[in-house]
Design brief:
alpha+beta, five-stranded mixed beta sheet, about 140 residues, two-stranded antiparallel ribbon, Glutaredoxin, globular, about 25% strand, single chain
């Protein structure tokens, strides 16, 4: 994937030290909390290695950060992924397979090429949901 020019911003820390910080185009959060991926509680495994390997292989590392936090909720929809791309949130549930991870990275790449939010389509369409008030307000995007 072609990379966009890197952008940085100067941030002054609480101790007064200035630091240069890369400005990202997005962030991928893959839930690995109390339910998501907890096979001992009869939830499907989260394909973490697929997320990590595709993040590195596709060259999105300097444009979209990958974080595997604790619980994102809602637990009844395990395995949850939150994408934040160009200021828009996209919530996905039931991300249990390599094909769904691949669909996520294909979507992220389309958004990066467009340089703006694009609606979710294809394999991911049935997995998108609204989680927050601001998500519901953005339905008419």
């Amino acid at each position: 994937m072609n990379s966009a020019p890197e952008r940085f911003t100067e941030v002054v820390r609480a101790d007064g030290t200035e630091r240069e910080v890369r400005v990202l185009e997005g962030h991928i959060f893959v839930c690995k909390g109390c339910c998501c991926g907890n096979v001992d509680r009869d939830f499907p495994e989260v394909p973490l290695e697929d997320f990590k390997s595709q993040w590195k292989a596709r060259g999105t590392r300097r444009r979209v950060h990958l974080t595997i936090p604790g619980c994102l909720g809602p637990c009844p929809l395990a395995n949850v992924v939150l994408l934040i791309l160009y200021g828009q949130s996209v919530w996905l549930h039931s991300i249990n397979s390599t094909s769904r991870v691949t669909a996520i990275y294909d979507y992220v790449e389309r958004v990066l090429v467009a340089g703006d939010y694009l609606p979710v389509n294809g394999l991911l369409s049935d997995h998108e949901f609204n989680r927050c008030v601001f998500d519901a307000c953005a339905e008419g995007r």
